[in-house]
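User: Here's a protein and a ligand (2'-deoxycytidine-5'-monophosphate). What would the complex look like?
Assistant: Let me lay out the input and then the predicted complex.
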Amino acid sequence: MKKIIIAIDGLSSTGKSTLAKRLAKHLNYTYVDSGAMYRAVALYVLEKKLINGGELNTPKMIIELPNISIAFEHNMDINSFDVYLNDVKVSKAIRSMEVSNAVSIVAAIPQVRQQLVRLQQQMGAQKGIVMDGRDIGTVVFPNAELKLFMTASANIRAKRRYDELSTNSSSPSLQEVLDNINLRDELDSTRKDSPLLKSNDAIEFDNSQLSQEQQFEKIMELVNSCLQL
Ligand code: DC
């Protein structure tokens, strides 16, 4: 059976990963959350105290890059992948606000992007993959058979992320989440290297008003037409 690459890009908290996981499960494809890789690098940078008050020690971080190993392991219980940073499971730790505040700064460094893009391209070499991120359709897999670009209003995205995070008393406020989302959108869209851009051949989806079910159905129609080509 023909296998394709599905590239899903878009602003933060547009439901890319929920959609990507569901598509991967349905198609029996591999799902890769490329944002988790950038988050793991940001966690490493925080642990090594290479970032201080939003200032990254870029030369030191570039020297440290060969010491950073990122791996995914399938977890049957959650039907998703656990993320490992140098053999330590960090799936939860990479979702903290501290990491969210540092990640766009780290992701703007070209050497970080080169290292992670190489790894992402290796993961997709056999096709049969759904990958979500910011530059998947433009840089990582410019020849992907299906490219989607997800958008939704900032308030709706902040509420979604807030609901995801507000499981304990140290959770950030809705305003903090909204501020972080706005700041990351700005940094991700204006950085010099591989900014968040809609590829000309990507199909744009504003899912502010769509249920997950409606969105999945519409996108499966697109997937099926790609598979029949
Ligand atoms: O998808 P996410 O919000 O977990 O991604 C975290 C950050 O990583 C995001 O602010 C931008 C960066 N990122 C990127 O630059 N390129 C990607 N392909 C994926 C994420």
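Summary: The longest strand covers residues 5-10.
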